[in-house]
């Protein structure tokens, strides 16, 4: 009951005063109806719908809550990116604005992670993973499609040039210069164990 009331209040904050009466007359009586109404509102905003679909996919299907930065990278990366520097830094830096657009379904937790407003929202979205708005602007993928999309994004990130063996070795030695004197195995040398 309190969740329903708090979602109604949160959702009404952006409503102009003259629209409050209409909003109150059309309140759903159950939480699932309210979630449906919130999703329909997101789908009516073309600038938000596609972004919300992708964010909700990550938040619902990720094995653990993600930080704002993790979710920003997951949202922003595409197959054209080859390194962290090829991603527009402003998109990562300003990502918190995307979260604001998805309120009240998404919330920033006290621990800095992005979460659904309540476990019941996750259950609703999981049960309605085939949800598609009338204009198809807000669409949820099945768990299998979501896993595939998330895997491709993670593999793209891990294949960045920033994570090549050479880059990681340079980064390690930059932070631990004393380690350069250690004998290391170099697979390119014929005689393992010699520097």
Overview of this protein structure:
This protein is 54% helix and 5% strand. The chain has ten helices and three strands. The protein has helices at 2-12, 17-25, 31-44, 46-61, 68-76, 89-93, 96-101, 119-127, 143-158, 165-175; strands at residues 66-67, 106-108, 113-116. Strand 2 (106-108) and strand 3 (113-116) form a beta hairpin. The longest helix is centred in the first third of the chain and has 16 residues, at 46-61.
The shape, in one word, is elongated
Structural class: mainly alpha
- Quaternary state reads single chain
Main sheet strand line-up = 1-3-2
Q: How much beta, percentage-wise?
A: under 5%
Provide a concise account of the structure shown.
The protein has about 200 residues and is mainly alpha-helical. Helix content is about 55%, strand content about 5%.
Structural key phrases:
mainly alpha; 195 residues
Topology of this structure?
Elements: H1 2-12, H2 17-25, H3 31-44, H4 46-61, E1 66-67, H5 68-76, H6 89-93, H7 96-101, E2 106-108, E3 113-116, H8 119-127, H9 143-158, H10 165-175
Antiparallel strand pairs: 1-3, 2-3
């Amino acid at each position: 009951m309190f969740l329903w009331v708090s979602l109604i209040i949160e959702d009404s904050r952006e409503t102009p005063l003259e629209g409050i009466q209409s909003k109150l007359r059309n309140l759903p009586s159950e939480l699932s109806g309210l979630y449906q109404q919130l999703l329909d509102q997101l789908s009516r905003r073309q600038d938000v719908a596609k972004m919300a679909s992708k964010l909700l996919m990550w938040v619902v299907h990720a094995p653990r809550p993600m930080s704002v930065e993790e979710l920003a990278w997951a949202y922003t990366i595409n197959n054209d990116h080859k390194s962290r520097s090829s991603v527009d830094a402003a998109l990562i830096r300003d990502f918190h604005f995307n979260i604001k657009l998805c309120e009240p379904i998404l919330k920033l937790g006290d621990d800095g992670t992005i979460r659904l407003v309540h476990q019941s929202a996750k259950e609703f979205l999981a049960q309605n993973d085939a949800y598609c708005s009338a204009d198809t602007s807000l669409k949820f993928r099945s768990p299998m499609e979501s896993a595939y999309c998330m895997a491709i994004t993670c593999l793209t990130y891990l294949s960045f040039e920033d994570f090549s063996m050479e880059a990681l070795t340079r980064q390690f030695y930059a932070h631990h210069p004393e380690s350069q004197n250690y004998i290391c195995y170099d697979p390119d040398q014929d005689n393992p164990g010699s520097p």
